[in-house]
Amino acid sequence: MPLLFLGLLAGADPVTGQGDPLGRSPSRFAVIDGVKLHYKSLGLGRTAVVLIHGWACDLSVWKSQAPVLDGRVRVIAVDLPGHGRSDKPVRAYSMDFFARSVNAVLEAAGVDRAVLVGHSMGTPVARQFARLFPAKTIAMVVVDGSLRAPGLDSAAVERQVAQFSGPNLRDVWAPMITPMLPGPEFDATRRQLILTAQATPAHVVTASIRGMLDPAAWGTDLIGVPVLAVMAKGPNWPAAYRAHVRDLVPDLRYEELDQVHHFLMLERPDLFNPLLIEFLRAQGVLKG
């Protein structure tokens, strides 16, 4: 895999993404349906790379990507409704609502067109955004997220919800997240992921599950923009899944990373970041 020369960014390694421009960036807010949305913005311009986290996470999961993008392209990192520092009302959390929330952030930030980068649940959010706002969608990057309907009936959905509905919800997260980011070198990051998940209210956790598993969020309509899919090689994504995605996306680059896990962008930014930068170059959105 060729390592692309990205230039030396202040305080950042061009491949592994050291430094914390997201942490230094001031918080900003947009509003949709009376819900306040937290986001951070790096750089200027009406074209942006939009970073969309997954279920029970927040924008900090992109801490290893922001440094290699900062100064090269406008970056918008969002806390989806119910997550991070965004408002957390009791309501439905559908992929449609999440996608419209991303659009509300882009409107507040003065962004006209975007490449959407979605991790895990961020993938169906990005896909729904592309459906609702095709003129604003340049391309998509899928980070270990699904583009295939789960295919669960209502009883199976409720069984999934029940796993996160009890009084011991806080105790669920550590055994779930630890295998997704193993190794002592990730102890601090893993603790932060667990704390973030524990801080996500139960009503948001369960409503987001229903939103993710709702058949209305899926479909076999073609994705008409270029897509880079970067997946953790393993049984979650068998050959049949890869074939499904190839049928769904005419302009697809599908990459599997070996010996990585679900939070692959945190675990191996040295592998993920060059793929991301190369794809963004191909879309013509990077400076230089």
What is the string of SSEs from the N terminus onward?
Answer: HEEEHEHEHEHHHHEHEHH
CATH class: Alpha Beta
Main sheet: strand order = 1-2-4-3-5-6-7-8
Quick one: overall form? Answer: globular
Question: How would you describe this protein?
Answer:
This protein is α/β, with parallel strands linked by helices and 288 residues long. The chain has a single domain, classed as Rossmann fold. The chain is 36% helix and 17% strand. It has eleven helices and eight strands. An eight-stranded mixed beta sheet has the order 1-2-4-3-5-6-7-8, sandwiched between helices. Strand 5, helix 4 and strand 6 form a beta-alpha-beta unit. Helix 5 runs antiparallel to helix 8. The protein is globular and about 50 Å long.
